[in-house]
Amino acid sequence: MSRRLFTVGPVEVFPDTLDSMNRPMMVHRGKDYQDLQHGVVEKIRKVLDVDTEVFLAPASASGFLEGCVRSAVENKMAGLSNGSFGDRWQLIGQENGKKVQKISAEWGKALRKEHVAGKLEKDVEAVTVVSNESSTGILNPLSEIVEGIREQSEALIMVDGVTSVGAVDLKPRKLDLDALVFGSQKALALPPGLAVVCASHRLMEKAAKVKYRGYYLDLMQYKRLSDKDLPLTTPPVSLMYGLDYQLDKILREGVQNRYDRHQRMADMVREWASKRLGLYAEEGYRSNTISVVRLNGMDFKEFDKRLRQKGFEISPGYGSIKDETFRVGHMGDLSEKDIQDLLNVMDEVMEEMA
Predict the structure, then answer these.
(1) pTM for this one?
(2) What is the mean pLDDT of each run of 10 residues along the chain (354 residues)?
(3) What are phi and psi of 181, to 5 degrees?
(4) What residue ranges define each of the domains in the chain, with the CATH number in brackets?
């Protein structure tokens, strides 16, 4: 049975987007492909308002999270975390043999300037931070965090934008970020399989000096080919068609209009959750793409089963709070009507279970 996805990812992919990928394959070393990649990169720059390098890889976004660590860190990094995905980037550093200064905040609370002020060790080369922590539903105040880092360090600043890019204005140009990593299967509303990184000139200068960057996720290798509008390895051509289509769709809607729509959908879910069960994330720092809802004793397995039977799917909790929460995704091409349909069905199921 097909279900409408209100999940953390992969998210609902609309029929017109699926149709856009139903095109013949092309050779990825020829002019037609070069034109496609060039167009996609320029549209990403336009949507995000950046003039950085833009690289695309056949991977999940985690691939470029690792690629950034391997390319930008010779010895030591700092990893900021207030949830599972911040912890994961710290782990990626450790598993690649880097020293990691771990700076952690309470789950469900936002990372703030005070968490980094005067605390970065002097030999830290790069700092990683998750903009939207999808395990807890927190949208971290990126501007404040970046300010706190820059006041004390020249370290590169690398941001996980996986569940925020395409839905929230992270102001990457204003903040002058060194890396912004995201993927196809979240707010861009595509199937999984494409990772994207916007990389600063500072990061690329550092990468040129770092040894043992690997190959598949080495940013210098990507630059060598992207300068010719070519992929490093065989790309998912169908997803490239889809990304090209989705970027056009975003530009037609208007980037700010898209951000505003995500705000309205988030407000709807938050209002519902606040009245019914309660929200996990700190007020004032709640995500516009994911709401983490407290179970308050409700049987999630039964709730989820009944929702699926009615044709709707949400996501369970994640990490150390998986048994006390569930998650609702409200991102991508979903509309307020879609969200209202979900809320109505969740009300029905809760009445049935009462």
Answers:
(1) 0.96
(2) 90 98 94 97 98 97 98 98 97 98 97 96 97 98 98 97 97 97 97 98 98 97 97 97 98 98 98 97 98 97 97 97 97 98 98 92
(3) -110, 135
(4) 4-10+255-353 (3.90.1150.10), 15-251 (3.40.640.10)
